[in-house]
Design a protein that fits this description.
Helix content is about 35%, strand content about 25%. It has about 220 residues and is α+β, with helices and mostly antiparallel strands. About 35% of the residues are buried.
Length: about 220
């Protein structure tokens, strides 16, 4: 019985070591030197205790690139919009848990095992920095374009473009869309954010399943 009792403890130790090493080992391993970009874009990583989003600054080119958001009823063109906020995550947890008070067992089980994925898109005005839940990074124009490509490629495409999920939103300012890929405890919202940031030329940890480990690696290597 004592041996059986030690198994959960050992699993917790292994998981803690994996998360720690995932944050401390950089990806890519080596930083390649490059010319300082003539102009930069300032992107933000927004986080809460379990989830991260990427906020990209709005301009005419970004609005044209994601014109389907306006078609879906998002007021991306109103005065005061400064950022479009993108996040990838598990369908059940995203759609069925708008607040912590509505947490249910089935979405949690799907998040820990396997679920289809969705893209959540929101808009934001000015976002104050610095804040514990906001990290800002300057990237070159070519890397910004690559980041937009990565985000756009995460949407599942139908005959008319990205597939909106009807009657699914937290407010009149956000929308959900079908996404590519499957969500689980090992490959989740924060690993998607990390992959997007690497596309943007930033370094992350090798494996970042949690916002805290992703944030640590970003502070260490950027």
């Amino acid at each position: 019985m004592k041996k059986l009792g030690r198994i959960p403890v050992r699993l917790l130790i292994v998981a803690a070591l994996a998360v720690t090493l995932g944050a401390l080992v950089p990806r890519p391993l080596w930083q390649t030197a490059g010319d300082r970009p003539a102009s930069t874009r300032h992107i933000l990583v927004l986080r809460n205790p379990i989830h991260t989003d990427i906020a990209v600054p709005v301009d005419d080119a970004v609005l044209r690139r994601f014109h389907f958001l306006l078609d879906a009823g998002m007021p991306t063109d109103i005065a005061g919009v400064r950022y479009i906020v993108f996040g990838w995550g598990g369908r059940a947890f995203y759609l069925e848990t708008p607040t912590w008070s509505q947490l249910k067992a089935v979405p949690v089980m799907k998040a820990l095992t396997l679920d289809t994925s969705v893209m959540h898109v929101d808009i934001a005005g000015d976002i104050t920095e610095p804040r514990p839940d906001v990290a800002g990074f300057d990237i070159g124009e070519d890397r910004f374009a690559a980041l937009l490509d990565f985000i756009a490629a995460s949407f599942q495409q139908g005959e008319g473009g990205p597939v909106i999920i009807e009657n699914a939103a937290y407010s009149r300012f956000d929308r959900f869309f079908e996404a590519k890929g499957h969500f689980n405890a090992l490959v989740g919202c924060n690993t998607w954010t990390a992959a997007a940031l690497r596309t943007a030329g930033l370094r992350t940890g090798w494996w970042n399943p949690l916002p805290v480990s992703l944030g640590l690696s970003m502070r260490l290597y950027n």
